[in-house]
């Protein structure tokens, strides 16, 4: 059995060693439970993050750890493993051109419909710790401060319940708000003790957070088709068959004329080019 050369001393219990088979097993686990492909360049990262979990649960080997998280009894720890092995890069108003398009080309018609009593639904798929859905909400509230009083809501989902809990709590360090203009911060965040601010009531009312595995779920939770979907920098981590399944499901969940925003490095599969028409930089409209 070959070693990948990754090991570290653990006080009182010898040394953790990650073998090539251990790393391959990490890849199989992540693909099975999250649909995410694990690149070979991530060996050091995987080792460092899972070593913390071995220490936390008191196991002596990666093999024992994978046996545990793949068992029926390992469901709780499986959540932590997926959280450690998936990417959570996010920020408020990331890829700002999408929010400019949302404000100018999408929000006016959505608000017109909402003011008439129509249902309006927006989905942030892969919401991480909440910065994206709250950015969507701020964009809407800047156009109409009464938006939360209408039948207009933002569904925010992510595979990782730990980051979903952060978004639901709505507390952010000042360092995470540094790029938001001061007037916008004052309008949508309330200063707490220390260097932390809380999402204000109207913005919080707009967003509902739920845990959702896009690939594992038998069905997605939305009862009505979506007017807008943000699914950015998420599908890119899936293998090709998984990407095809997501685009197929997505195409059935977005209204005709509804918008799909994806990440700057992503493209909708060629098989769905007749379904989603490109309308701008990584911005599509459902045909």
Can you lay out the helices and strands and say which pair or pack?
Layout (H helix, E strand, L loop, with lengths): L2 E8 L3 E6 H15 L8 H15 L4 H8 L5 H11 L10 H20 L4 E6 L5 H13 L8 E7 L2 H9 L1 E3 L8 H7 E3 L4 E4 L1 H6 E5 L14 E6 L8 H14 E9 L13 E5 L2 E4 L1
Parallel strand pairs: 3-4, 3-9, 4-8, 9-10
Antiparallel strand pairs: 1-2, 5-7, 6-7, 10-12, 11-12
What is the number of independent domains? 2
* CATH class membership of the largest domain: Alpha Beta
Q: Tally the helices.
A: 10
* Broad structural category: alpha/beta
CATH topology name of the largest domain, in short, is Rossmann fold
Largest sheet: 7 strands, mixed
Number of strands: 12
Distance between the termini: 53 Å
Low-pLDDT parts are 1-14
CATH superfamily of the largest domain: Vaccinia Virus protein VP39
Please tell me how large the radius of gyration is: 21 Å
The proportion of strand residues reads 15-25%
């Amino acid at each position: 059995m070959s070693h990948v050369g990754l090991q570290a001393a653990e006080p009182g219990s010898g040394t953790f060693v990650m073998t090539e088979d251990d790393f391959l097993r990490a890849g199989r686990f992540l693909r099975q439970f999250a649909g995410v492909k694990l690149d070979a360049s991530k060996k050091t990262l995987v080792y460092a993050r899972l070593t913390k979990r071995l220490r936390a649960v008191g196991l002596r080997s990666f093999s024992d750890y994978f046996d545990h998280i793949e068992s029926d009894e390992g469901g709780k720890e499986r959540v932590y493993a997926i959280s450690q092995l998936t990417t959570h890069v996010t920020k408020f108003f990331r890829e700002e051109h999408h929010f400019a398009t949302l404000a100018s080309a999408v929000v006016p018609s959505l608000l017109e419909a909402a003011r008439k009593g129509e249902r309006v639904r927006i989905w942030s798929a892969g919401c991480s710790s909440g910065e994206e859905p709250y950015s969507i909400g701020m964009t809407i509230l800047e156009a109409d401060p009464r938006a939360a009083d209408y039948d207009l809501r933002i569904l925010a989902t992510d595979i990782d319940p730990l980051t979903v809990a952060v978004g639901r709590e709505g507390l952010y360090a000042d360092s995470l708000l540094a790029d938001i203009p001061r007037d916008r911060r004052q309008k949508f965040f309330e200063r707490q003790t220390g260097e932390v601010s809380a999402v204000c009531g109207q913005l919080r009312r707009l967003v509902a957070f739920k845990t959702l595995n896009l690939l594992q779920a038998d069905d997605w939770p939305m009862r009505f088709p979506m007017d807008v979907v943000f699914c950015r920098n998420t599908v890119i981590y899936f293998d090709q068959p998984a990407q095809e399944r997501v685009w197929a499901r997505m195409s059935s969940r977005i209204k005709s004329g509804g918008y799909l925003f994806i990440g700057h490095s992503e493209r909708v599969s060629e098989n769905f080019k007749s379904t989603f028409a490109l309308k701008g930089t990584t911005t599509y409209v459902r045909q």
